[in-house]
Amino acid sequence: MADHSEDKKNTVKTRNFIHEIVENDLLEKKNNGRIHTRFPPEPNGYLHIGHAKAICLDFGTADKFGGKCNLRFDDTNPSKEDQEYVDSIQEDIRWLGFDWEDRLYYASDFFDKLYEFAVQLIKEGKAYIDEQPADIISQQRGTPTRPGTESPHRNRPVDENLDLFSRMKAGEFPNGAMVLRAKIDMASPNMHLRDPLMYRIIHAEHHRTGNKWCIYPMYDFAHGQCDYFEGITHSLCTLEFEIHRPLYEWFIDQLADCDYRPRQIEFSRLNLTYTMMSKRKLLQLVEEKLVSGWDDPRMPTLSGLRRRGVTPASIRNLVEKVGITKTEGIVDVALLEHAVREDLNKTAQRVMGVIDPLKVIITNYPEGETEMMEAVNNPEDEGMGTREVPFTREIFIEREDFMEDPPRKFFRLSPGTEVRLRYAYFVKCTDVVKDENGEIVELHCTYDPASRGGNSPDGRKVKATLHWVSATENIEAEVRLYDRLFNVEDPSGDKDKDFREHLNPDSLQVKPVCYIEPFVKGAKPLDHFQFERLGYFVVDKDSTEEKPVFNRTVTLRDNWAKLAKL
Ligand code: ATP
Ligand code: MG
After folding, report:
1. Any domain includes 12
2. Does residue 421 sit within a domain?
3. Does 42 participate in catalysis according to the annotation?
4. Which residues on neighbouring strands pair with residue 72, listed in sequence order?
5. How far is residue 433's CA from residue 524's CA, in Å, rounded to a whole number?
6. Residues spanned by the domain of 135
7. Is 19 in the pocket of ligand 1 (CB under 6 A)?
């Protein structure tokens, strides 16, 4: 038997308050011991890392208690929804490591049932057609402290309501001409019970039902009933729905003919610093081409994070670390970066790559010779073995690893100093070659043949070890370096400023000519590497055989923490 604590979907290790509720319900034999959850996205955008919290909780809870979890698309608003989103959402959930098996539902599967239920409520005198314009209806709702005003259509006779509703459905009226409202209580302290809308007219083609309908149920009229129709036992959702719960319960009370009720439990959303998770605003970034698309590696979408090189395990670990509570808070995005490093450190193949190349000629090394140097693939995992890296007379090092006139604490290469080339030799800088503008174009070094493998021949020490790549045997690649998309902690927190004003202009830096050791030849999109000293990188989808492209996922250390300490 698989031990749950070893489960690859390690979202279930820690107990949370929801697990306790579920456990209690099981003890009390509610719903005959059935546990059934669902993840209910609206297909009006791509999933983001906030959704991942809900996904891990919905699927993870079902998993932990031997239950089931459905995927349900809440597709009640055809004007904003699209098949592209439906497809991407499925891909992203699978990528995260979860499976709804054959339980894929759409709110639109239940449109007929919802319509019948609406007719039932009309017949029972619990729903009516209101012909007032939206702004009047909204004004009449009152405020939390002042009761609402009843619509003049509230007491319309049942027959007239039935007639108008069926004509609404038949397409006789334009958008906005009338709505169907539940007749509950215009004085309720809960505003959502003040005769909420149930149906509106939208003459738009639906991505699944086509032109069958021109009236669509409101989310609040669909969501709870879909849970009920699907036999959901625990309906987990974010805190903003707490206030909607009495309405959902009111609808189910009118509908249910037995004791079974889905139980809604609310938890707090995941928010991250320097990250914006409103789907509406993310769409704006995409439409205004402020990013390259929903999967731009700077986006907090799951497809963006995937392309950036973030692994599903690190997202699941983050969600686990953050925990499930009812307290609203904002999580430091450094925690995500930490989870990514932790995961990739264990799994990523190490290679050497130079992203800001400076040529070095080793003047006493034989011309035309290539030596294969043995390099460790992953010091964290001996099983990953070793590889050979070609060493030649001409190599590249990182430009910033050399200073002609170094300050006292600079221990890397400078005229006269000796450093180790990782896995290769000790070298000493003898000459600096400059162009007519005084720009350094090349260094001359000598090497010590006795230091092969980078080992000191006589116990003498060097203060730095540099990465390098052969100038003649390498892969030329483009490297894309990313920084945070926003330069303030809470990009939507500023009432006086548009969130777009907080975009970080330096969030993408492209290095068109970089050199990577030949090992990466043939690497495929989503293959991960650690470029020694530079960070974790992943092959981008733009990559080709001729021009590989690598995205930097994260640096090896948290540069921001370092800056904060200065
Ligand atoms: P909107 O409803 O404005 O389009 P949404 O982010 O709520 O945006 P949904 O598709 O309705 O999008 O979300 C699906 C599920 O994911 C919901 O149950 C919602 O509560 C949950 N969810 C959304 N954002 C977060 C978040 N930041 N943290 C945790 N759960 C979230
Ligand atoms: Mg929502």
Report:
1. no
2. yes
3. yes
4. 105
5. 38
6. 131-218
7. no
